[in-house]
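chain below, 109 aa
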Amino acid sequence: MALAFSTVKNLPKMKGGMRWRIVDVTFDASYPTGGEAVTAANFGLDTAIYGMFFCGTIGGCVPEWDDTNSKIMAYYADYDAASDGVLIQVANASNVMEDEVVRVMVLGV
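prediction:
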């Protein structure tokens, strides 16, 4: 199964053709190393994503938009060792986010 996208709200076009979309993204059981690849079309846009803003976490994992690679990344905290500090990317093929939904505001054209 791949990511599933469910449009919540399509906001009117702004000057210059820019659009906001509010979309619920449902994750599957196979998060890949390096993040989940997404396209403008996944969000009902024509050509480009300019920004992505998350309204919550993904099953407790912190989402991040990787603009360079057009991917949704997911991180978690692991503070069980003295050397731990920054967030760690979710492991390859992890099912920790299976069936979890995050609401996303996407700006693009």
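The longest strand covers residues 19-26. Residues 31 and 90 are 8 Å apart (CA to CA).
thats it, cya
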